[in-house]
Amino acid sequence: MPLLNAEDMLKMNLVVLDIEGSGGSQRNDPYGTGSIVSLGAVDFNTKDEFYEECRVMEGRGYDPQALAVNGFTKEQIFDKSKQSVLELLAKFEGFCKMHGSSLLGSWGLYDLKMLVAAYAYYAREWGLPRSYVNLKSISKMLLGEKKSGLSNTAMKLNMPPEQHPHIGINGARLAAECTSILLFGRHYYDEYNAYAIPELPRSKPKLQATDIGAYINHKSR
């Protein structure tokens, strides 16, 4: 797994994503018993955005606590008039290809695991960028291991936490904003310019890139 610096991530056209899920009928297994219900993403170079919602995959369940976080209702996530997760994935593949992206990033591993689970459910060949970075690791390296979640990181950087309910595109935007401050020392969106950037360590971390194909093969054993 190669180590990437900030400039490498720009060259690879990083796409920052955030997935909201249904939870799962078994709370300890949101990947095997739950489903994607929305996906938001930001092209880190251009600020172009992607946002789509979908219905729960057939046979999958939900956790009321997960819906309390993302604001969806049971009726909304099982709405047959909504597109399927498969249709959403195809659209997201098109977004990544159009932007020439070869790197996905999100805050934590939840989003990667949800994508891998969805592709496995449909027995669909992986059609997204082949490399992935856990952007949460930047916060851990620069701001400390404790409270390194997205909202806590935003507050450590003098910004407000993620809005409630959690919406995929808002999470992706906030993740892009925090990443920009941590790696480049500057705001990503003008709307945050009023928030003073705190003093940060001068040394910039290198991030470990996960080969998604190898990750999928390992999980399937």
Write a brief caption for the model.
The chain is α/β, with parallel strands linked by helices. It has helices at 6-11, 30-33, 64-70, 74-77, 85-98, 110-122, 136-143, 150-156, 168-184, 212-219; strands at residues 3-4, 14-21, 36-43, 49-53, 103-106, 131-134, 207-211. Helix 8 (150-156) packs across helix 9.
Task: Give an overview of the whole structure.
It is built from ten helices and seven strands. With 221 residues, it is α/β, with parallel strands linked by helices. The model has no long low-confidence stretch (mean pLDDT 94).
**Proportion of beta-strand residues:** 15-25%
Give, in spatial order, the strands making up the sheet with the most strands: 1-7-6-5-2-3-4
Helix % is 25-40%
CATH superfamily: Ribonuclease H-like superfamily/Ribonuclease H
Query: pLDDT below 50 for ≥5 consecutive residues: which ranges?
Result: none
Number of domains: 1
Multimeric status of the protein? single chain
How far apart are the first and last residues' alpha carbons, in Å? 19 Å
Tags for this model:
7-stranded mixed beta sheet, 10 helices, single chain, 221 residues, alpha/beta, Nucleotidyltransferase, domain 5
List the helices and strands and how they pair.
Layout: E1 3-4, H1 6-11, E2 14-21, H2 30-33, E3 36-43, E4 49-53, H3 64-70, H4 74-77, H5 85-98, E5 103-106, H6 110-122, E6 131-134, H7 136-143, H8 150-156, H9 168-184, E7 207-211, H10 212-219
Parallel strand pairs: 2-5, 5-6
Antiparallel strand pairs: 1-7, 2-3, 3-4, 6-7
Helix pairs in contact: 8-9
